Amino acid sequence: MNENLFASFITPMMFGLPLVTLIVLFPSLLFPTSNRLVNNRLISLQQWMLQLVSKQMMSIHNTKGQTWALMLMSLILFIGSTNLLGLLPHSFTPTTQLSMNLGMAIPLWAGAVITGFRNKTTASLAHFLPQGTPTPLIPMLVIIETISLFIQPVALAVRLTANITAGHLLIHLIGGATLALMSINTTTALITFIILILLTVLEFAVAMIQAYVFTLLVSLYLHDNT
Amino acid sequence: SQDSKMASVVPLKEKKLLEVKLGELPSWILMRDFTPSGIAGAFQRGYYRYYNKYVNVKKGSIAGLSMVLAAYVFLNYCRSYKELKHERLRKYH
């Protein structure tokens, strides 16, 4: 049972070929592009949703920050669609792999911070010391602020990985428990099944919320630095 | 009459699969374009055939998307069958 639990998180390879590349590229199939003014239902729905999200998320930025709109919208679409596809049975979710999430978090965070340092050097450095700190506390506080700055990308990546992985594991465990309980005590199995249904609804919400949180935090780091 | 005889003989290469006779099948398969651009073209034709029939229509339904997701689930099942067959409800595995 222990080996089965984590088997779904192994990177899929087939005959030594990386199947994981195809799985990572698959969500792009579900977002077709079109040059028409009036599109089919799928594209119209996606465009409406994208406009809603981009207006809400990019409104806080100035002109320089809004150049990141394409990046942030692609990010939220990718993470959202990958997480939701991972809820299908037997599928592999790339965002459960810490390597991939670090690969997304570190460049984006570094891009925002370096942009801030290059364009508004004094203001970026001023972030390391909150206003109105008593003088003896300054060295310690600078160290603490530096640590909290460098922990941002790690926190972004680990937050996403942990949430999605924990959700998948819980679904596996509770599903296995329901199956095992069916022959022992049907009522308990029914209660466990209801818990499983509630958990699945939660996982749908978590999938989308985590995408939103990731993108929102990147956008906030950007706002601080532009 | 000469023109009608010429028009009725279609070269093997341009026949569609359903018009190929069984005896001609191996040679028809071997004549297909297996270059990378040929394979890419085959995938592109297949994609647009599905897209234009089920998605790019005026009143596309949920079936267009659901069939793709069902195929995705099925392919993932095939991929992980090796590990899944140990979890069947059998006395002897």
UniProtKB/TrEMBL annotation, chain A:
Keyword Mitochondrion included in the entry's annotation? yes
Annotated catalysed reactions: H(+)(in) = H(+)(out)
Membrane topology is:
Multi-pass membrane protein
Q: Where are the transmembrane segments?
A: 6-31, 67-86, 98-117, 137-158, 164-182, 189-222
GO molecular-function terms, A-Z: proton-transporting ATP synthase activity, rotational mechanism
Query: What organism is listed for this UniProt entry?
Result: Ovis aries (Sheep)
Superkingdom in the source lineage: Eukaryota
Where found?
Mitochondrion inner membrane
Q: Whom does it interact with, and what assembly results?
A: Component of the ATP synthase complex composed at least of ATP5F1A/subunit alpha, ATP5F1B/subunit beta, ATP5MC1/subunit c (homooctomer), MT-ATP6/subunit a, MT-ATP8/subunit 8, ATP5ME/subunit e, ATP5MF/subunit f, ATP5MG/subunit g, ATP5MK/subunit k, ATP5MJ/subunit j, ATP5F1C/subunit gamma, ATP5F1D/subunit delta, ATP5F1E/subunit epsilon, ATP5PF/subunit F6, ATP5PB/subunit b, ATP5PD/subunit d, ATP5PO/subunit OSCP.
Q: Does the keyword NAD apply?
A: no
Main subcellular location of this protein, as a coarse class: mitochondrion
By sequence similarity, the record places it as follows: Belongs to the ATPase A chain family.
Name used for this protein in its record: ATP synthase subunit a
* Keyword vocabulary terms for this entry: ATP synthesis, CF(0), Hydrogen ion transport, Ion transport, Membrane, Mitochondrion, Mitochondrion inner membrane, Transmembrane, Transmembrane helix, Transport
Q: Which InterPro entries match?
A: ATP_synth_F0_asu, ATP_synth_F0_asu_AS, ATP_synth_F0_asu_bact/mt, F0_ATP_A_sf
CDD domains in alphabetical order: ATP-synt_Fo_a_6
One Gene Ontology term, aspect cellular component? mitochondrial inner membrane
Q: A Pfam family in this protein?
A: ATP-synt_A
NCBIfam families of this UniProt entry?
ATP_synt_6_or_A
